[in-house]
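Is 6-O-phosphono-alpha-D-fructofuranose placement plausible here? Inputs below.
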Amino acid sequence: MSAPKTLQDWLQAEAPSSELAGVITTIAAACAEIAKVLRTAPTDGLAGATDHTNVQGETQKQLDVVSNDIFIKHIRQNAAISILISEELDEELHMQNQGRFAIATDPLDGSSNLDVNVTVGSIFSVLAVDPNAPDLLQPGSEQLAAGYAAYGPSTSLLLTFGKTTAAFTLSNEGVFMLDREAVQVAAQSGEYAINSARQRFWDAPTSTYVAQNIAGEEGELGKRYNMRWVGSMVADIHRILMRGGIFLYPLDSETTAKGGRLRLLYEANPMSLLLEAAGGAASTGHGRILDVVPTDIHQRVPVIMGSSAEVARLDALYAKAK
Ligand code: P6P
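Reply from A.M.:
I modeled the complex. Tokens:
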């Protein structure tokens, strides 16, 4: 049996360039440090909220700010990274170097779950930029790499350069060890994730899709579905990458004015690249998420992603409703 592979072994074999491997190493080091901080945060007085509101209009948790600061600290040490876009920063942060890479991140996604010790995560996307004329509004199909760290019972790191999705687990020695070379999302599933408390806001395709699932064995699909909603996108998407399913935060009557709930550059795009590289699908209901050309670094989009047959069924309902 060959020796277990580390993240560095995998990057040496899979990264398109040593510079990009270095960028992923920087991000992984930030995630490993965040994992360490989260483990004892409640007794270190780091739980709870600040009195600040971020650009999203959300109250910032102390750990949102701490995690963002950890990303900045590590990124400043890598001259290949010239720009950071973060959910926690109103504007992009320029590192005053000639780096050819930009990172977009939600440094601590799902932080409302921190106080109840439920899995949260860091989501990241890597873009190529001209440091003298950076184009940050690239469609997700242009991403060079994407991934997330899920801070749960173990700390997982999921990574893709667009072709395959690999999974790693953080060891007690602080080393990411390869779990799976090529994660595959089951095409079919019996599990869906949506915040059902928003049912009164749903559009017809979403309502029909969920009703078909709830109808179970007696319904037109002739199969039973289960529902899971963690309230932390990283946790829900990780479950889907591991055992199939579909994650729904579609446009609804309340989110339409903002274009959706979840952010394109540092939530929808990285998760879409990971899922498509694992054989899944990611749609807005009106097209592929990775084809959306951003208009703003904090743009929101509708999100329908996971098992390809499930996404296709909801997409067909949207097409029929046109
Ligand atoms: P709701 C967390 O705030 C987040 O951005 C995602 O991680 C999560 O999937 C979603 O919002 C939860 O939204 O409306 O259920 O609170």
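Short version: Helices lie at 7-14, 18-39, 62-76, 204-214, 233-243, 264-277, 308-321.
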